Amino acid sequence: MAISREEIVAKLKSIVGEDNVVTDRAVLEDASHDRFRKYEGYHHVYTNPLPAAVAFVNSAQEVSEVLRFCNAEKINVVPRTGHSATEGGLETIVENSVVLDGSHMNKILDIDPVDMQATAQCGVVLEDLENEVRKYGFTTGHSPQSKPIAMMGGLVATRSIGQFSTLYGGIEDMLAGVETVFPDGTICDIKAVPRRSAGPDIRHVVLGNEGAMNFITKVTVKLWKYYPQFHECMGYTLDRMQDGLRIMREIMVEGYRPSVARLYDAEDGKEHFSHFAAGKCVLLFVTEGPQLISHATAEGIREIMAKHPECTPVESKLIETWFANLNWDAARIEEERKEVLETNNVCCTTEISAPWSAVEHIYETCVKRVTEEIPDITIFGAHASHCYSNGINLYFVYWYNVVDCKPEEEITKYHLPIKKIICEETIKAGGSMCHHHGVGKHRVHWIDQEHGSALYIVKRLKQAFDPNGIMNIGTILPYKG
Ligand SMILES: Cc1cc2nc3c(=O)[nH]c(=O)nc-3n(C[C@H](O)[C@H](O)[C@H](O)COP(=O)(O)OP(=O)(O)OC[C@H]3O[C@@H](n4cnc5c(N)ncnc54)[C@H](O)[C@@H]3O)c2cc1C
User: Fold this and answer.
1) 82 CA to middle of ligand 1, Å?
2) Which atom belonging to ligand 1 lies closest to the Cα atom of 160?
3) CATH: 3.30.43.10, 3.40.640.10, 3.40.250.10, 3.40.50.300. Which one for 5-103?
4) Cβ atoms within 10 Å of 315's Cβ, excluding its own
5) In a 10 Å sphere around its CB, with 0-12 CB exposed, 13-18 middle and 19+ buried, how is residue 301 labelled?
């Protein structure tokens, strides 16, 4: 027989202490969803079953005990740290879930200036870690726009990526070691070494598991010397997104590695660049590193740009000022909430990756289909912000007026149909439907198409590490219950 809500709460209190188990209704409502349902949340409408409790853990040992209990009683556990998820990864879709929150595990454990790495508990906010390592003249190189809120555990769990990725890579390139806890209570500490070939790279059982296989408790990331005085910034306007994509390819293929390489189409650019580039696409680069490298990279990019008369340089100060204000903190989210409630105009996003040969087709098809097929769209645009030698990402940004529907209908009327077009067209053209926000619970519909024959590996990993299926039900793989 299933254990009662009261029994779950009592057992959690016995493990993590009375004060660390929260059952207030408002807290449970907030814990039942994430920013995928921000429109519902802003209207105080909650459509998922409320969890039994939010339990704050303070050590890997406590995580182990909670997971062992939940595993034995087959209770759904939703791991959480910064609560900035955007794809439903935090939704509690079955009754009496436990939201296991690691945000109190917020100590920076070590900054090692010899081995150039930092170790932090899962609940350390990335911005706090970055500020601390800057005191030593270092950087993590990680700078997602959610840097002021996202925490180390969630950043690893979602395979996050930041704005300087073209130089530093994604979190998978930064993660040296990690400690994690499996549902049977086993605590595994994967040591931090520069590289090894001791069997498969087991970090990848942890990276991107989205809380669906294990709970990350400690993270070791690499550090780099930080030289802000040598940053060089360049910006250009142009008419066609397609031209910008080809230029970005040229720069990558020629071997240049700016830290930032971004391209906005005119629609997405409306929100950012109307004061100097109305109706235009904007292409921008930042180079960094030691002076010689940063300067040589900038010179190389300028040389390529000089061969493209379709691009007009803009004053770099304009780009620098814009870039300095790109991140999201709690105050900005509150501003958004007020604006959405006033206007009913909502902004949502879907990010994908694509080989160079497919990206233009995906961009054109998605723009055409969404603007033709979905009602009440006010803006549908995209930017590319992460470049590779073999392809690029596209971050579709869409705004729509929510018209003639209840808050709880917004997802099915607008957000999911748009996501469906983007995911299906991307997969069909040979790209990936998720570049960095994870699958969550709202891209599981296309996970078989995404992986094809390799879905076998994902399913086997889930069965092996979470045989009772208690970890974040409905995330990465669909819930069939
Ligand atoms: C305004 C905004 C801007 C964003 N910009 C970026 C960006 O530039 N780049 C980017 O990559 N992402 C971005 N994101 C998405 C989000 O911030 C990242 O996915 C981030 O990694 C989530 O970290 P978090 O600590 O908030 O995790 P949470 O939101 O708490 O959780 C995210 C997922 O990870 C799981 N999880 C959390 N903690 C753990 C843990 N300790 N162990 C196991 N699983 C865990 C959860 O179950 C959930 O599935 C943005 C989000 C917002 C709201």
Assistant:
1) 7
2) 11
3) 3.30.43.10
4) 10
5) buried
Q: Of 30, 192, 204, 189, nearest to 118 (Cα)?
A: 192
236 CA to middle of ligand 1, Å?
31
What local confidence, expressed as pLDDT, does residue 72 receive? 98
Residue 1 pLDDT > 80: no
Q: Are 164 and 173 contacting, i.e. CB atoms less than 8 angstroms apart?
A: no
Which pLDDT value is given to residue 44?
97
Give the pLDDT confidence of 195-212 residue by residue, as tens digits: 999 999 999 999 999 999
Query: In which residue are the tokens 């996050």 written?
Result: 160
Cα→Cα distances 123→215, 343, 385, Å: 12, 35, 27
Overall average pLDDT of the 451-459 stretch:
98
Residue with token string 């009327």: 413
Q: What is the 3-state secondary structure (H, E, C) of 161-229?
A: CCCCHHHHCCHHHHEEEEEEECCCCCEEEECCCCCCCCCCCCHHHHCCCCCCCCEEEEEEEECEECCHH
Alpha-carbon torsion, ordered 449, 453, 454, 455, to 10 deg: 60
> Considering the chain, what is the average pLDDT of its residues?
97
Cα 35 to Cα 384: distance, rounded to the nearest angstrom: 22
Confidence tier at 278 by pLDDT (50, 70, 90):
very high
Residue with the smallest CA separation from ligand 1 atom 4 is 146
Structural contact between residues 255 and 167, judged by C-beta atoms closer than 8 angstroms: no
Pocket of ligand 1, beta carbon within 6 A: 34-35, 78-86, 89-90, 102, 122, 144-146, 150-151, 153-155, 157-158, 160-162, 210-211, 215-216, 328, 436-437, 472, 475
Please tell me the distance between residue 405's alpha carbon and the centre of ligand 1 in angstroms: 29
pLDDT band at 360; cut points 50, 70, 90: very high
Of 54 and 481, the structure prediction assigns the larger pLDDT to 54
Q: What is the CATH number of domain 228-324?
A: 3.30.70.3450
Tokens 């995209």 belong to residue: 382
What would the mean pLDDT of 162-170 be, rounded to a whole number? Answer: 97
Listed by start position, the domains of the chain span 5-103, 228-324
158 alpha carbon to ligand 1 midpoint, in Å? 6
